[in-house]
Amino acid sequence: MISFILVSHSKKITDGLKEMIDQMALNQENVTVFSLGGTSDGNLGTDPIAIYETFQERKSDDAILVFTDIGSAVMSSEAAVDMLDDDAIKQKIHIVNCPLVEGAFMAAVQIENIDSLESIFEELKSINKEF
């Protein structure tokens, strides 16, 4: 099992992306998608505690891929990793450097057809355009 954790400052963004992946990425039996947008009180922002708790819940997964939108979403995800005491869980977590929507969707669609996480990461590099 692989978990996709969608981290954005907006719950609407992560909820919409999760809905899109759930409806369009067929054959994703081995993928569970989590929408972690916004703060616990419904405002814009990110919640490292919610991310940490999701990591703990998914510790038995083969891999946990974290897709983020902007800077502090990455920092919140990194802070959540730092809170973990278990190095085995930490090794499963990959904070993916790619556009949130395109990256998570592409990975979800292709995950059943690719033989390794490294192959997925290579595919994601193709959409990570630097200016």
From TrEMBL:
GO terms for cellular component: membrane. Coiled coil: none annotated. Its EC number is 2.7.1.121. GO terms for biological process: glycerol catabolic process; phosphoenolpyruvate-dependent sugar phosphotransferase system. Keywords: Transferase. It catalyses: dihydroxyacetone + phosphoenolpyruvate = dihydroxyacetone phosphate + pyruvate. Component of the dihydroxyacetone kinase complex, which is responsible for the phosphoenolpyruvate (PEP)-dependent phosphorylation of dihydroxyacetone. DhaM serves as the phosphoryl donor. Is phosphorylated by phosphoenolpyruvate in an EI- and HPr-dependent reaction, and a phosphorelay system on histidine residues finally leads to phosphoryl transfer to DhaL and dihydroxyacetone. Homodimer. The dihydroxyacetone kinase complex is composed of a homodimer of DhaM, a homodimer of DhaK and the subunit DhaL. This is phosphoenolpyruvate--glycerone phosphotransferase.
